[in-house]
Amino acid sequence: SSRVLWTLAVTQFSVHSGGLYGGHYWAYAKTEHGWYEFNDSSVHKISEDQVKTPNAYVLFYQRRDVAEEMSTGGSSAGAAEAATTNSIVESDLKDLMQ
């Protein structure tokens, strides 16, 4: 028997600015071509540095299978890769929220 090791990556999120009774929403999404900002009727490609915001409101994640581990009691190289990938995702999420 084996199990699939996976990680989550932020692929889209919305942002809110303003107050409780008013404000503005826009969204960011990552594609195979990079990050994009969706703001009302405009869409712009932006750098990864421009994505970082403390105002992320709703985050969307994508599950990514990293490796398959045999349940023989030992761990595989895939397990180490999954742990490293999880650390990277957590780091990216912390960067996003700064």
Q: Please, could you describe this protein's structure?
A:
The chain has 98 residues and is an alpha+beta fold. 24% of the residues lie in helices and 55% in strands. The chain contains two helices and five strands. A five-stranded antiparallel beta sheet has the order 4-3-2-1-5. A hairpin with a 2-residue loop joins strand 3 (34-39) and strand 4. The model has no long low-confidence stretch (mean pLDDT 78).
List the helices and strands and how they pair.
Layout: E1 2-19, E2 22-31, E3 34-39, E4 42-46, H1 48-51, E5 56-70, H2 77-96
Antiparallel strand pairs: 1-2, 1-5, 2-3, 3-4
Features:
98 residues, alpha+beta, five-stranded antiparallel β-sheet, 24% helix
Order of helices and strands: EEEEHEH
Strand content: over 45%
**Level of helix content?**
10-25%
Number of strands: 5
Structural class: alpha+beta
User: How many DSSP helices?
Assistant: 2
Average pLDDT works out at 78
Termini gap: 41 Å
- What best-fitting shape do the alpha-carbon axes yield? elongated
Radius of gyration (Å): 17 Å
Strand order of the largest sheet: 4-3-2-1-5
Concise summary:
The protein has helices at residues 48-51, 77-96, and strands at residues 2-19, 22-31, 34-39, 42-46, 56-70. It is α+β, with helices and mostly antiparallel strands and 98 residues long. The protein has a five-stranded antiparallel beta sheet.
